[in-house]
Amino acid sequence: MNIIRPLEFLIKPEKSAIVWLNGHVGNRLTDRLWNASRLRYAADGAANIIYDNLKKRSLQPPHKVVGDMDSIDPQLLKRLTAEGIIEHITEQDTTDMTKTFRVLAKNLENDSIISNILVLGGLGGRFDHVFASLKTLVSEMKPYSIPKLSLDDINILMVLPEGSHHLELGAEYKTFLTGVCGIVPICQRETRVTTQGFKWNLASEVLSFEGLVSTSNQVENSSLFLETSAPLLFMMELRKELLESSS
Fold it and tell me: What's in the keyword line of the UniProt record (predicted)?
């Protein structure tokens, strides 16, 4: 069984690797998590936002900037190239998010401290970009031992691979979450799901967009169980005050 602690990044951000995507402006919570993380990677367009706010928001610089470099300011590109933190990948068959994940994965091979990868952004803006982000979360799930979560102003979202999963939210989970959650199929094959710890549990039921989708469900326990026959999208809603009070 795969044991996942999806809220650990909020309690121990120093054990996180963070990927900042194009279009994510940031807020006090994500700025704090970014600065405290062990590894900081940025897609090329996100570098513009980060470096424009280094002093204003006291942001730490990224350890790597990855992508095809079509979105980064030319003068900033020149500067960061001289600093040796640019990973320029020219191929156009993958998104900057996928490119960044693959570069990061190589650097995690000998790192025993990182316990999660947190993605900032990728869930807002253009809808085709949202689907591209979800596709990357599915295709780049390995290694399964390091959960990959996407965070925006409302949601914590992750893709659970096929198999059984025990999600430990911790005794203080209500401090961070409203309790509202969703369990949604993401692959084009039968997705049979069993759950425990929710208001409306599933008992080996098939989820599909032509049938049942478990949206507006409710977390009712700090320990959750999900078993799925195919990759599954799981999301939880953050408390608004968590975003507003973070410093």
Answer: ATP-binding, Kinase, Nucleotide-binding, Transferase
